[in-house]
Amino acid sequence: MKLDSHFNLDHTLSCGQIFRWAKANGWWYGIVEGNILKVRQDGDELLYTAYPEYVAEDFIKRYFRLDDDLSNILRRINKDVEINNAIQQFNGLRIVRQSVWSCLISYVCATNASIAVIENMLRNLSEKFGDEIIVNGKAFFSFPKVKKLAKASVNEIKQCKVGYRAQYLSEIAKQVENNPNLLEELRKSDYIELRDELRSLPGVGPKVADCVSLFAFDKLEAFPIDVWIRRVIYQIRGAGIPRTKDGTEKPLTVSEYTELSSFARRHYGLFAGYAQEYLFYYIRSKDR
């Protein structure tokens, strides 16, 4: 398919917003809504195939948010030196529009874990509770369905090396199983209402709620804060991170999270979530 707007597939799938894509021999492979997608960018062409079912271009456009006016978004969030540097380096990065269920479970797993550990947890969950899809002799596994995870015991979920998160995953799955419209009904909420409602779910704190709001509910003003973003926001503000007497960074408190996220939304505006993703990828790439 022809790309008629700024898009960089590698930046989009490497930046840490989504965890079940892998690159091999120049192609990206991902499992999206039960289909295996094989995608490659060649200049202004996006080449893709899907198994086992055909996927229309509209699905691809929606998934990669190719309907977003990225030039306008980047122009509007370009408010400081750090974000300008991030835009210059990673222009074409787009937020991926994830399914609510997979995004929620993924980010509950993401608490206090590195990207490599998150990917391993999700791989284990999918292999144990997902459906196997064979493509060219290679086995892929779909994301666990609500019903399958709800029926699993906490100990069975723990076998996927998710640790204490197993209890949260079990409770969330049971809640959604008992009320199938629970998550989709949240689409009616504005950002603040949605964030607060998500935080009522087991294992969902401020960051997880913001990630799910941004990546699954189209709340582009959401601005998740983690250790990386905390550092760059203090740098943008020209202030030092709160530290203990021995010089180590103090843990991020809920009140500090709320204040920093509110600042970022005021600073970057309605597309603060895009700024967050560019800054997150930029600051992590500098540290490598």
Tell me what the structure shows.
The chain is of the alpha+beta class and 288 residues long. A hairpin with a 2-residue loop joins β1 and β2. 49% of the residues lie in helices and 11% in strands. The model has no long low-confidence stretch (mean pLDDT 95).
Features:
single chain, 288 residues, alpha+beta, Endonuclease III, domain 1, 4-stranded antiparallel sheet, two-stranded antiparallel ribbon, 14 helices, 6 strands
Layout of SSEs?
Elements: H1 9-14, E1 21-24, E2 27-32, E3 35-42, E4 45-51, H2 57-63, H3 70-77, H4 81-90, H5 100-109, H6 115-129, E5 132-135, E6 138-141, H7 146-151, H8 154-158, H9 165-178, H10 191-198, H11 206-216, H12 227-237, H13 254-268, H14 272-287
Helix pairs in contact: 4-14, 5-11, 10-11
Give the radius of gyration.
19 Å
Number of strands: 6
What is the percent of helical residues? Answer: 40-55%
Note the total helix count. 14
CATH structural fold name of the domain at 100-205: Endonuclease III, domain 1
Distance between the termini: 34 Å
Give the overall form.
globular
Unreliable runs: none
Just name the CATH architecture of the domain at 100-205: Orthogonal Bundle
* Mean pLDDT level: 95
Order of helices and strands: HEEEEHHHHHEEHHHHHHHH
Summarize this structure briefly.
The protein is α+β, with helices and mostly antiparallel strands and 288 residues long. It is built from 14 helices and 6 strands. The chain has a 4-stranded antiparallel beta sheet with strand order 1-2-3-4.
